[in-house]
Structures are given as structure tokens and as C-alpha cells.
Write a structure and sequence with these properties.
Blueprint lengths: L3 H9 L17 E2 L10 H15 L6 H4 L5 H12 L7 E3 L3 H12 L8 E5 L4 H13 L6 E5 L5 H4 L4 E7 L11 H10 L3 E5 L18 E4 L14 E4 L1 H4 L38 H16 L2 H22 L6 E2 L11 E5 L3 H10 L2 E2 L1 E3 L3 E5 L7 H17 L15
Parallel strand pairs: 1-11, 3-4, 3-5, 5-6, 6-7
Antiparallel strand pairs: 2-8, 7-8, 9-10, 10-13, 12-13
Length: about 425
């Protein structure tokens, strides 16, 4: 176990330490929720202000050409591609993760005629399951169904000749467990199925190699580790070998081969552009691009190394200093099998998290009983971890969480 002086030394030697000053972090807060909403880069406000005041305010509609607004979904997509092991022209930024998942599932099913199963795990992120249920209902005349397995260890055995698409989140949102992307993708292909990955808790947090794993499809969000802001546009990935063989079910004008020809009939654009639909949200795209540019300045391998060290330090300190207070580790103990989060279960987890937030340690709660702590290496210090655990210990020892106001569930947990 590290001593205070050893923790201070880690911060002195941190190769990513310089990035912290580029985020607008409030005083008196240890922010352990970057896996839900990333912190604000300092450059974002000025960039959005420039879009509002100059590009919109002065240049008006000319900015679609003058400032290349029209190119933003693909330009920013190419930047995200560098973070997830994709090639230029394989990623576009558009819509939300839910809408993108709908587009890709609905595009994939006709590409595997005669197969009727979308396969996932029961503990996948609920909106992914909801979208898959909706897509299955739309294809219900063909007997399509969502089938889930109870454990991630059962996924590979469940892939069979009836599986059209395997849909998994690379890092589980609730417990942080990482799926073996290369192995599961290979198993899906061996059975003739397509593989679709949700990268919401991966992109910007750990190395991802969609191309090296030969993945078919992927989605991800922009507001977690990419620091694009609340409701930031999401992204989708379609391998180049599939782009002109599958069709988006949302045939909007920005996915048209010549949107400003204003043809009454739809002709899909070539490549990834066919998966665009409506007008790009320029303000939020501008904010997202700042976060991605900042992320691209860092070495993703260094981000992963620090993430593992931060998580392991937090896990070890909690188990040492908070022992005997009913916390149970639910995230993988092995750092190589864990994303950039650590999760503990407690019967009074919600109230404990509210007490932590009141003391300036911001994590979040996931039903039924999980305290979830996310670690964003670009702006977290090792000293922050020690401080957070000390506050958690005090809350547990004094039962400061046992107050009526901490038991009232808010709309967002």
C-alpha cells in the first residue's frame, strides 16, 4: 500500500499531469464521474462563443461553406477514428447513441437474411436492449427477436447459426468488466454473424482497435471520456467493406448522394456519409471537437496506464480503510479486465453516494446498490484518490449518510 509521500511522488512524476490545468475544475471537488459526464475543457467556452458570435452571428449561413460546417460530421469522425482503431472514412458523428444503434441494427439485419436473433447480455446498458427490442418488433413479421444471456461468460457459446448480430458494450456500464473484443468478434464471424460494439465506456479511456479486431459496426457517445459536454453528439462506425452493402433505415437528406440537388427520390451517398440523416448540430459539434482534439494530444497508452493505477489505488485504499462497513467490490479486481471505473455494492449505496457528493466527492449510483466511481486520467491526481477515500471512510464511520434527505431519489442518479 502506498504511503502519502509515495502518492505525492506519483503526482510529481505523472506524464499526464499537464492536462489537468486545461480543464475547468471547481475548487473543493474530487470529480469521479467522468465516465458519465466528462469535465469541461477550458477551451470549449471560447470555441462555442466564436461559433455563436462570428460564424453564426456575422457570417450567418455562409458558414456552411466558409467555416466548413457541412464537413464537421466526417471531419470530427476521422479524429475519433484515431482513438478507436478505425480508418479515415469509417466514422461519422451524428445523432445520439440510441439513434445510431437503431440505424446500425436495422441496417445489419437485412444483411443476414434468414437469421432472426440479435444476441446480447442481460446486463448490457438498458437503452441498448430497448433499442434492440424496438428493432426486433419492427422486423417482427420475420420472427426477429432479442436474445440475452445471463452472464458475459455465456456469450460466445450462445452465438450460433441463427444469430444475425451480436451486440455488446465493450466495457460494462455497471461493473466495468471488459469484453475480449478480438475473441468475441472472431467467434461471431466464425458463426456468420455481424459484430456490433458499444464503445460508450471505452472511447478515450483505453486503447480500442476496431480495425485490428475486424469489427463490423460500432457506436459511442461524445460526453463521457471525450469531454464533449452534456448531450454531445454520438458517433457510429461502419467498416469500409460494409459501407456500400448496407443501407441506413433513416434516409435523411444529409445521407443523400447530392443533398443540395433536392431530388425527390433518395439516393444514398457513398461510404460513411450514407449514415448521416438530419442537419449537423454545429454548436455541439464544435464543443465536442475541442474535447477530442485535447484527447488526441495525449498518448492513449499513457492514459490507460494511469487509469489502471488510479483505479487500483482507489480499490486498495477503500478495501483497507473502509473495511467492515459493508462495501463489496463488484468490478473486476484484475486491472486488465477492468475499464476506467471501480464499483462497490452497499445496501445503502444511494444514500452513501449522496453524502459523498455533499462533501465534494462526485461519483454516481447504479441500481440496485452500486456506488460507481469513474477515473478520467487527464484531470485526476493520485492525491484526489486518497482524499476521496478519506472522506468516504469518515462518512461510513460516522454514518453521515444516514439522513432522510439522502434517501430521496433524484431523477438522475
Amino acid at each position: 500500500m502506498l504511503s502519502p509521500s509515495e502518492i505525492a511522488a506519483l503526482d510529481r512524476d505523472d506524464e499526464l499531469a499537464g492536462f489537468r490545468d486545461r480543464f475547468a475544475l471547481p475548487d473543493g471537488v474530487v470529480y469521479l464521474d467522468g465516465n458519465s459526464l466528462g469535465a469541461l475543457p477550458k477551451a470549449t467556452a471560447a470555441r462555442v462563443a466564436a461559433i455563436v458570435a462570428t460564424e453564426w452571428g456575422t457570417d450567418l449561413i455562409r458558414s456552411w461553406n466558409k467555416h466548413a460546417w457541412v464537413e464537421m460530421p466526417r471531419r470530427i469522425g476521422d479524429k475519433i477514428a484515431r482513438l478507436i482503431g478505425a480508418a479515415p472514412g469509417e466514422v461519422a458523428v451524428a445523432d445520439s447513441t440510441s439513434v445510431n444503434l437503431f440505424k446500425l441494427l436495422a441496417a445489419a439485419l437485412p444483411h443476414r437474411p434468414g437469421r432472426r436473433v440479435i444476441l446480447s447480455e442481460r446486463d448490457n446498458f438498458p437503452t441498448d436492449l430497448y433499442i434492440a427490442q424496438g428493432v426486433a418488433a419492427l422486423f417482427g413479421g420475420g420472427g426477429v427477436e432479442l436474445r440475452t444471456v445471463a452472464s458475459p461468460d455465456e456469450v460466445e457459446a450462445a452465438i450460433d447459426g441463427d444469430t444475425a448480430v451480436v451486440m455488446l458494450t465493450h466495457v460494462n456500464y455497471r461493473n466495468g468488466r471488459i469484453h475480449d473484443m478480438a475473441r468475441i468478434t472472431a467467434r461471431a464471424h466464425e458463426a456468420g454473424a455481424l459484430m456490433l460494439w458499444d464503445l460508450a465506456h471505452s472511447a478515450g479511456a483505453l486503447p480500442v482497435d476496431l480495425g485490428g479486431c475486424d469489427a463490423d459496426l460500432a457506436i459511442g457517445c461524445g460526453y463521457k471520456y471525450l469531454n464533449g459536454g452534456p448531450g454531445a453528439p454520438a458517433f457510429l462506425y461502419v467498416a469500409k467493406r460494409l459501407q456500400d452493402r448496407i443501407a441506413s433505415p433513416i434516409t435523411g437528406w444529409f445521407g443523400h448522394a447530392a443533398p443540395f440537388a433536392f431530388d425527390p427520390g433518395y439516393r444514398p451517398a457513398d461510404g460513411i456519409a450514407r449514415f448521416l440523416a438530419g442537419t449537423p448540430p454545429v454548436l455541439s459539434l464544435g464543443a465536442l471537437e475541442v474535447g477530442i482534439d485535447l484527447m488526441l494530444e495525449a498518448d492513449i497508452a499513457a492514459i490507460r496506464r494511469k487509469s489502471q493505477r488510479l483505479c487500483t489505488l482507489f480499490q486498495d485504499l477503500v478495501e483497507r480503510d473502509c473495511a467492515g462497513h459493508g462495501l463489496t467490490l463488484v468490478s473486476p479486481r484484475d486491472a486488465d479486465r477492468r475499464g476506467s471505473q471501480v464499483c462497490f455494492a452497499h445496501p445503502d449505496g444511494y444514500a452513501i453516494m449522496q453524502a459523498l457528493i455533499a462533501r465534494g466527492v462526485i461519483g454516481d449510483f447504479r441500481a440496485p446498490d452500486i456506488l460507481r466511481f469513474g477515473f478520467a486520467p487527464l484531470y485526476l491526481r493520485y492525491a484526489d484518490i486518497a482524499e476521496a477515500v478519506a472522506i468516504l471512510r469518515d462518512i461510513l464511520e460516522t454514518r453521515a449518510w444516514d439522513r432522510p434527505e439522502y434517501c430521496v431519489r433524484a431523477a438522475v442518479t
